[in-house]
Structures are given as C-alpha cells and as structure tokens.
C-alpha cells in the first residue's frame, strides 16, 4: 500500500526481495458507518405486532452476541496477528509529545523482566571459544559456523532470515614464512623478534597488521618519534635536525590511530613503521591473568589502512569482482606492531640522543627502566656494526564473507527500517569486542521474540544484522551499505551498533548522532545502574557521577572505529555505538587493555569486567528500550533542538580554539539551523495530529532527513578518505577519539600550524562545504508555507 492508499504493483528493489520486506507504506484503515435508520423503523413495527415472540427471539440473539463478543475480545487480547495496526493514542489538547509514544513502550518492563543473565556467558562462549576447535576471523570456518548457528536460531524464533555473501580481499599473515625484525652485528648479541601469540596453543592467527604490505627493509634504520603527533615530527626537525627520510618510524601506540601513523611516516619520507604499546598507557596494575592490564609480552593487531570496506573496491560494493580505479592517494608502508618487551630492547640499543623527558614512558629492561633513544645515527644504532632487517610477510587472499539478517516486518510502516548490528568475526578470541556485543545482541533478539509472543508487533521493520569482516575494516557492513545506499538513504531510520557492548566497569557511553540524545537520555534514566555501589540509582545517575560537568545531551562524536561508520558516512543514516566503557584514567589507550590480543578471552570478561553479568543486563535493557521507542513510537523520539545545541557547541569551541580565523559563514548557518529546529519542534512536532498518518509520515521523514543533509557530495577535507559527513569524524590530531565538525577542525588545524597556501585554500573549501551542509539541514526542517 503506497502512502496515498494505492497499492504498488512491483517490489521496490532487489534489497526488498533479499530482505523479504514488502513495499507497503503507511496503511490508512477505513470502517463502514452505522446502518440506515429505516431498518430500525421496520424492526420497531415488527416488534409491536408480535411483541412477546419477538422479545424472546431478541433475548436469545442478544445472549448469543454477548457470548460471541466476549470470546472474541478475550482471544484477540492474547493473540495479535502480524500486520495488524496497534491502537492509536489520542492527541491531548495541550499537544504533549507523550502522545507520540507507541504501544511498544508499554512492553519495556516486560522486556526488562525477561532478561536472563545466565544467557550472556553462554552466548559469549558460543561466539568466541567454539569448543577450542577453530578460530573465527572473517571468512573462516569459525565465522561461517557462527553464521549458520545464527540463521538456525533466528529461524526458530520466527524471523525472516536471509544472508548475503561477498567475495573480498583480506590480509592474512604468511604462516610458513613469518614476519620478523632482526638486529645483527656489532658487540650486541643477535636480537630477533617474531610476533607470536602469548598462548602457544591458541588457534587464533599469529599477530600481524591488517592491510600492511609485505616487504623487506634492509638495512632498516629506526628513528623514535614518540606518539607520532605533528609536534613530534617538528621536534625532530627543530631540535635535532633529524630527518625521517628513508628511516623506519618507531611510535608509541594509543594517541594517534595506526593508519595516521603510517600516513605521517610516509609524508615525511619514511619507509616503514614499528609501533608498540607503552606500559605507561596500557598497564594499570598487574598484567593479565593476575590483573586486567596488558602484559609486557603481548602483541596487538591493528589496521594500517585508513580505507574501510573491501580495499579493492572503495566506494563500490564487491559484486561480481568489480574493481574501482580510484584516485584515493593512500600510501601503505610495511608495518609491524611489537610487544613492550621487544620495544624496550630495541630503543635501548638505538643511538643517542636520549628522547625528551616527556617522550619517556614505562618500558622496562631486565627489571630496570629502559632507555628511550631517538636513533640519530645513520644506522639508527649505537654500535656502528649493527644493522636491522625488517621483514613483513603478509598475503592478500580472496575470501567469501557472510552477513546474516533477521527481519521482523513492520505492521504500519514496513518500508522504514530500524537496524541493529554487530560483527561476529575476530582476529583474536575477541571476548570483549565483539563477544560482549554478540551476547547482548543475541539476548536482544530472543527478547523481541518473547514480546511478540505476548502480542507486540513493531510499527516499523526491524533488521538485525550480523556482520562479517569487522576486524578487517568493517568490510561486511560497508559492502552491504555501498550496495544498498540509495534504499537505506530513503528508508533507514536509525542504525544502532553493539560491537563492544561491555569493555569495562566505568560507565555507559554512546558515540553517535545527536538525534539519539533524547531517546538515550530517556532509556538510561529508566535502567538500574549495574554498579554495586549505586543500588537504587540509574545508569544516568552513574553516568553523571563518572562524567562530572558533561552536558548529558551531548553524545560523544562518532569516529571511524565501528560498523556504524559506513551507515553514517555513506548512507547518512543516524547512527550510534553503545557501550559500557573502560576507565582510561587519562592514559592514551585506544579501547581497553587487551584489545585485539590473544588474551581477550571469556575468562578476562568474567574475572575483570563483569563478574555478575549486570553490565550486560543493563546494556541489553538500554538497547531494548531504544528498540521499542524507534520501532514503535508514532512520532520518532527526536528533538532536533538537541542537534542544534550540539552543533553550536562545536562551533563555539572552534571559534575559541582558532580566534584568528573568520568563521562568520558557519555562524550564520548555525543560527539558521537553530531557528529552524526551534520552529519545527514548537510549530509542527508539538502540534501534530497523531491520528493523521500522512502528517506523522512527513514529520518522521523530515526528522531523519536532517542527518542526510549533513552529507557532502564528495569527500571534503576529512582526515580519512571515504568520509562524507560534515559534522562527525576522527579527531584533527588523529586520535582514536572523534571530534565535532571534524573536517573543519582538521582544516583549521592544518592552516594554523603551517604557512602553506594550499591549506588556506583547503580551509575555505571545507568551511563553505560545512556551512552549506548545516544550511541544508535547516532547509530540511522548513516547508513552503509552514512558517511566516
């Protein structure tokens, strides 16, 4: 049924066929009126003629009808057929937005009461251990086994289940010829590093760097550049007149994302990258298994490329082996991540000068503090006879990866999609990421089935997506979004990601679009805090205590480190990543201590992160409440004033940070958006007639259209290629944390730190593109004739 009440004669896309979703839009129900009054007169005449006989017959008929109606009401109150519309709440005279809520919210407490904490460990073991018989990296037997298991589970729960396979390029370590770092010659004994698993019997792949090219660098002259910040390179040039040209850059992990380290090394003429986790950042107490810190002999896996998706086909789906002749200017260098122990040995034998005091961390060598040498000599070593050979041995292989989808068709708006996603693959055991996400994800799907048994069916279509290829650069989610971006751009309402649902004991956190501010604040205010010291208080109470002074309406900006990335930046779908976080205590650590190591096990989760599974319970309830809101509220739980407030705060921060730059153009756009958001909310949303299906449809479409408006026509100044959203993205310094007005912040950073004319020109382009995007968002809230 189309929005005007007419039925379409064709499926709207191959996407609909694959997902088994009909193209029906809003259905407007009509009912016949009462019978003609003439019939009542005829009955009266007959009754007057033979009133006793007719009286008995009427009593019998009334008794029959009463029994029939009573039985019908009792049955239909217990069993609700799919595809029926829920009762429509009546609009109050004062225009309260409480009337915008759907029937689904009435099931919130039912959902919470059915959460079973005993399921979390079962799911965690199911998607990480595989009875110790197989690994589960993307495209592997383990990942395929999990895909089949998910399909069986969802089919048993009554979901419409489909899968999508893509043939993609993956990087894998050469098992027969291993990567190594060898120092020979001089008075020192030979020093040989071969990254390996801490657990020798582990089935996971040996440590390697995704998308790092293979190659030999011999001799490899190392030079230490701290965290790889722009100021660190400047120090080498100004203080020591040291050149990176032809050298292997040695960095500490944590402050700057690995792909940016690779790019900066290449930009300065470097030929290879070595990175390591410094204990000053990664060690906060005893190392695992005696504590929850990263042991000094642990190896981390990461990605060397800033691209996401199949590296052969950026911006295009991997269908039929299509290869895109792209002009992305990406330089990849042989990259190796070593352990802290090996880094201590390497830096100690490198040549003087000793690194600046602020560069020295917590490396230890033979029980003593290790020396952090910069490596100024031509060879990089103290002993002129020493030389280093760096060998990276990776393979590029083509593999089939499988995405699995479980769908519940909406009853009233089946062509509007609420999407929940979590990748299931991991280069390691991956108990925290994505294991905790999969545990919450699978429990959530079970709960939705329980609600259906109790009579609830969503207004909008719900899609549960299990992605493959997450640890290889969000490949599964990216290829699917690239293939279906037009449909998603038109029909997807929100995307909610759960990859790293429980990574610590600190507090709840959400990274994503400000569209979610209202609903998330509502959800976390209704869920009990899992902190044992906060009995009787809510997750919101805990959040405020752990984040003093933070404006609760400002979610953290969304970066590029989850499967939410392609949804936001390619299709413009409002996206959010939910998690319970690890407390970094001011240290430079990307996620949590054992991230992407072979020590990220079920034992680690149940011993040091969530011993009673209450954080998993809280995250499941939060996700469930959001699902009920977005899938069933008549008017979406969005206040665009929240988005306006957030963008204004980003603008004011940039204005304060860069006072010498004229940002008046953006200021005018922000003020226009604020004004449009305020009028739209007060003059349209608060006055909406929830019984008017077309008006509700218009309101919801325009709320979601705000996010689409922030997409630029192409990549405009982002630090990472492929990114198109002008509000959210990675930090201007390359940190793992994201930043508001990301491309503009990056352009300002470059223009402020250099005198190159090209950076001034780039700033003007990005400033104009950002201002236009904000104005487009304002226009999405304005309709001709609506305001005067």
How would the blueprint of this fold be written?
Blueprint: H1 14-19, H2 37-49, H3 51-78, H4 108-113, H5 118-126, H6 141-156, E1 160-173, E2 180-184, E3 191-193, E4 209-210, E5 215-217, E6 222-224, H7 230-239, E7 248-252, H8 258-267, E8 272-276, H9 279-282, E9 302-303, E10 335-337, H10 340-349, E11 364-365, E12 368-369, E13 387-392, E14 394-408, E15 413-423, H11 431-453, E16 460-467, H12 475-491, E17 492-497, E18 508-512, H13 517-524, H14 539-546, H15 564-569, E19 575-580, H16 602-608, H17 614-632, H18 640-657, H19 664-685, H20 693-709, E20 728-730, E21 738-740, H21 742-753, H22 757-780
Parallel strand pairs: 4-9, 6-7, 7-8, 8-10, 15-16, 15-17, 17-19
Antiparallel strand pairs: 1-14, 2-3, 2-13, 5-13, 11-12, 14-16, 18-19, 20-21
Helix pairs in contact: 2-3, 5-11, 11-17, 13-17, 18-19, 19-22, 20-22, 21-22
């Amino acid at each position: 049924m189309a929005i005007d009440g007419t039925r379409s004669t064709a499926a709207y896309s191959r996407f609909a066929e694959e997902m088994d979703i009909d193209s029906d839009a809003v259905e407007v129900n009509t009912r016949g009126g009462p019978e003609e009054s003439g019939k009542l007169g005829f009955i009266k005449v007959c009754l007057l003629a033979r009133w006793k006989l007719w009286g008995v017959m009427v009593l019998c008929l009334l008794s029959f009808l009463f029994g029939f109606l009573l039985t019908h009401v009792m049955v239909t109150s217990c069993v609700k057929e799919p595809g029926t519309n829920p009762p429509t709440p009546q609009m109050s005279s004062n225009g309260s937005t409480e009337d915008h809520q759907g029937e689904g919210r009435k099931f919130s407490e039912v959902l919470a009461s059915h959460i079973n904490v005993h399921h979390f460990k079962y799911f965690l073991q199911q998607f990480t251990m595989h009875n110790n018989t197989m690994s589960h990296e993307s495209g592997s037997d383990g990942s395929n086994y999990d895909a089949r298991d998910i399909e069986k589970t969802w089919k048993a729960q009554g979901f419409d289940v489909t899968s999508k396979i893509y043939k993609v390029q993956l990087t894998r370590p050469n098992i027969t010829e291993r990567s190594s770092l060898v120092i020979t010659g001089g008075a020192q004994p030979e020093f040989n590093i071969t990254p390996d698993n801490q657990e020798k019997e582990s089935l996971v792949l040996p440590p390697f760097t995704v998308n790092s090219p293979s190659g030999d660098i011999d001799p490899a002259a190392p030079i230490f550049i701290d965290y790889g910040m722009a100021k660190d390179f400047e120090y080498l040039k100004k203080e020591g007149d040291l050149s990176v040209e032809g050298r292997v850059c040695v960095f500490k992990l944590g402050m700057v994302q690995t792909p940016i380290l690779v790019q900066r090394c290449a930009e300065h003429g470097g030929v290879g990258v070595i990175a390591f986790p410094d204990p000053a950042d990664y060690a906060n107490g005893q190392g695992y298994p005696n504590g929850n810190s990263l042991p000094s002999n642990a190896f981390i896996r990461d990605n060397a490329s800033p691209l996401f998706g199949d590296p052969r086909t950026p911006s295009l789906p991997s269908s039929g082996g299509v290869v895109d002749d792209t002009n992305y200017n990406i330089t990849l260098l042989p990259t190796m991540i070593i352990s802290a122990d090996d880094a201590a040995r390497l830096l100690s034998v490198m040549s003087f000068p000793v690194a600046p005091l602020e560069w020295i961390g917590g490396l230890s060598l033979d029980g003593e503090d290790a020396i952090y040498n910069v490596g100024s000599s031509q060879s990089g070593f103290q002993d002129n006879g020493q030389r280093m050979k760096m060998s990276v041995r990776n393979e590029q292989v083509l593999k089939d990866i499988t995405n699995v989808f479980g769908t519940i068709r909406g009853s009233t708006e089946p062509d509007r999609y609420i999407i929940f996603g979590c990748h299931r693959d991991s280069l390691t055991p991956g108990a925290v990421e994505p294991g905790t996400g999969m545990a919450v994800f699978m429990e959530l799907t079970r709960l939705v089935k329980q609600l259906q048994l109790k009579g609830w069916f969503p207004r909008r279509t719900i899609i549960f997506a299990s992605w493959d290829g997450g640890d290889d650069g969000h490949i599964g989610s990216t290829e699917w979004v690239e293939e279906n971006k037009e449909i998603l751009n038109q029909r997807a309402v929100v995307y909610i990601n759960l990859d790293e649902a429980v990574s610590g004991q600190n507090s709840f956190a959400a990274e994503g679009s400000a569209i979610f501010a209202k609903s998330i604040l509502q959800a976390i205010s209704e869920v009990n805090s899992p902190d044992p010291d906060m009995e009787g208080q809510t997750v919101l109470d805990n959040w405020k205590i752990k984040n003093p002074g933070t404006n609760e309406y400002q979610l953290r900006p969304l970066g590029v480190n989850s499967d939410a990335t392609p949804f936001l930046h390619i299709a413009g779908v409002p996206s959010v990543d939910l998690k319970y976080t690890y407390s970094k205590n001011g240290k430079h650590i990307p996620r949590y201590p054992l991230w992407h190591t072979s020590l990220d096990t079920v034992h680690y989760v149940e011993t040091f992160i969530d011993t009673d599974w209450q954080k998993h319970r809280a995250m499941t309830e939060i996700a469930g409440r959001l699902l009920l809101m977005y899938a069933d509220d008549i008017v979406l739980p969005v206040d665009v004033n929240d988005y306006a407030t957030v963008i204004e705060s980003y603008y004011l921060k940039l204005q304060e940070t860069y006072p010498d730059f004229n940002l008046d153009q953006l200021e005018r756009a922000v003020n226009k958006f604020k004004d449009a958001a305020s009028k739209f909310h007060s003059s349209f949303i608060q006055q909406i007639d929830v019984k008017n299906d077309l008006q509700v449809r218009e309101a919801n479409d325009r709320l979601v259209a705000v996010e689409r408006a922030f997409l630029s026509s192409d990549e405009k100044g982002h630090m990472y290629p492929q990114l198109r959203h002008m509000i959210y993205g990675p930090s201007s310094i390359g940190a793992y944390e994201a930043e508001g007005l990301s491309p503009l912040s990056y352009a300002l950073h470059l223009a402020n730190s250099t005198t190159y004319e090209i950076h001034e020109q780039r700033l003007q382009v990005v400033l104009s593109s950002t201002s236009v995007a904000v104005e487009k968002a304002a226009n999405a809230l304005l309709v001709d004739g609506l305001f005067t």
